[in-house]
Automatic annotation (TrEMBL):
EC number of the protein: 2.7.7.27
Species name: Methyloraptor flagellatus
Name of the coding gene: glgC
Function: Involved in the biosynthesis of ADP-glucose, a building block required for the elongation reactions to produce glycogen. Catalyzes the reaction between ATP and alpha-D-glucose 1-phosphate (G1P) to produce pyrophosphate and ADP-Glc.
GO terms classed as biological process: glycogen biosynthetic process
Protein name: Glucose-1-phosphate adenylyltransferase
Length: 428
């Protein structure tokens, strides 16, 4: 007599789909609207939040979602980005079935071109992706600031039977003119996809709102490969996901929208979904300085969803001198390790690693990148100071708009971007 198997009384546990996914981060963008901030680095490598780089948010989302295979495609001025990835993201172990690949444009398909577009940046590395045999591909932009659980997006993709699932934001129709916009039906199936339309289609039931693409896509891997090969054979294609791949699938397959509000990660202090494209100096300054608020919209202190990055070994921040007019102090500010505020005052400012602020200086509404040295008796207001700049003693910025515009890059909202080249010109 054969014994029958004893039924397991425990409910079946659905294995996370992230175990079978690969995250592919597109990090080759220049970010030209950040002007001098991207003269020496790609936009994903731009500093953010006191310790991190912008790309750390997409990478941390993937890691925290349970994805253990990650590829990063780089192209424009990639050295600082690659160095950061090597230092901060080198803990993946192949013996744990993990991988982290940095994939610079290297003429692997043809000797006469680099990555020609976002889709081509994936196409040229099909053989590398195939070796890992991921069932799903999560294609990400590497230049946005947000917290998101990609596992929930993967689950929707499988449950809906979509050919592609597109991450999207609800924005006003006026804002939507700067995005790729999806027209969806009541079941979130994408009917049309339009790049930067003058008259964006409204959401069902929300006539004043539109669905804007986040540049996040989920595919089954083999389907994606088929689409990339088809697109590569089309001489009219610009090799871009938003302009070519996605519109083709919308027309010939099944594309479904995934609302960011369904998978955004929020701590108890975050009142609303947070997503930022810090693509201009004004937006960059505002997003960084918002972190100094009593209860900021983005919670970087959430231990349940940490933002991983390269952690430099630095001593604690230090504040010295305590006499009237020469008191080291900071009000509503974030000050990173290795900083010394010596007899100077900070107000609503963010200091990255290793900044020195010398006596009798006052800094307000300022984003100061790593290893800046601010001399004595300096007054800085509404500024972004690039890495390693030496601010000469007595410099005043932010009080005379006309004078500021002559010496530095001054934005329409009155933020001055200061680089070492601009400082050196003052000596001429």
């Amino acid at each position: 007599m054969t014994d029958l198997p004893i039924p397991d009384p425990r409910p079946a546990v659905k294995a996370p789909l992230a175990r079978h996914a690969m995250a592919y981060v597109l990090a080759g963008g220049r970010g030209s609207r950040l002007v001098e901030l991207t003269d020496r680095r790609a936009k994903p490598a731009v500093y953010f939040g006191g310790k991190s780089r912008i790309i750390d948010f997409a990478l941390s989302n993937a890691l925290n979602s349970g994805i253990r295979r990650i590829g990063v495609a780089t192209q424009y001025k990639a050295h600082s980005l690659i160095r950061h990835l090597q230092r901060g993201w080198n803990f993946f172990r192949p013996e744990r079935n993990e991988s982290f690949d940095i994939l610079p444009a290297s003429q692997r398909v043809s000797e006469d071109h680099w990555y020609e577009g976002t889709a081509d940046a994936v196409f040229q590395n099909i053989d590398i992706i195939r070796d890992y045999e991921p069932r799903y591909m999560v294609v990400l932009a590497g230049d946005h600031v947000y917290k998101m659980d990609y596992e929930l997006m993967l689950q929707q993709h499988v449950d809906s039977g979509a050919d592609v699932t597109i991450g999207c934001l609800e924005v006003t129709r006026a804002e939507a003119t700067g995005f790729g916009v999806m027209h969806v039906d009541e079941n979130d199936r994408v009917i049309s996809f339009v790049e930067k339309p003058k008259d964006p289609p409204a959401m069902p039931g929300k006539p004043d709102m539109a669905l804007a693409s986040m540049g996040i896509y989920v595919f089954e891997t083999q389907f994606l490969f088929d689409q990339l090969r088809r697109d590569a054979a089309d001489p009219q294609s610009s090799r871009d996901f938003g302009k070519d791949i996605i519109p083709y699938i919308v027309k010939h397959g099944k594309a479904v929208a995934h609302h960011f509000s369904r998978s955004c990660v929020r701590s108890s202090s975050e009142a609303r979904p947070y997503w930022r494209d810090v693509g201009t100096v004004d937006a960059y300054a505002e997003a960084n300085l918002d972190l100094t608020d009593l209860i900021p919209d983005l919670d970087l202190y959430d231990q349940n969803w940490p933002i991983w990055t390269y952690g430099e070994i630095t001593p604690p921040a230090k504040f010295v001198h305590d006499v009237e007019g020469r008191r080291g102090q900071a009000i509503s500010s974030l000050v990173s390790g290795g900083c010394i505020v010596s007899g100077a005052s900070l107000k609503r400012s963010l200091l990255f690693t290793g900044v020195r602020v010398n006596s009798y200086s006052a800094v307000e509404n300022a984003v100061i990148l790593p290893y800046v040295d601010i001399g004595r008796s300096v007054r800085l207001t509404n500024v972004v100071v690039d890495r390693g700049v030496k601010i000469p003693a007595g410099l005043v910025v932010g009080e005379d708009p006309e004078e500021d515009a002559k010496r530095f890059r001054r934005t329409e909202h009155g933020v001055c971007l200061i680089t070492q080249t601009m400082i050196d010109r003052l000596k001429d």
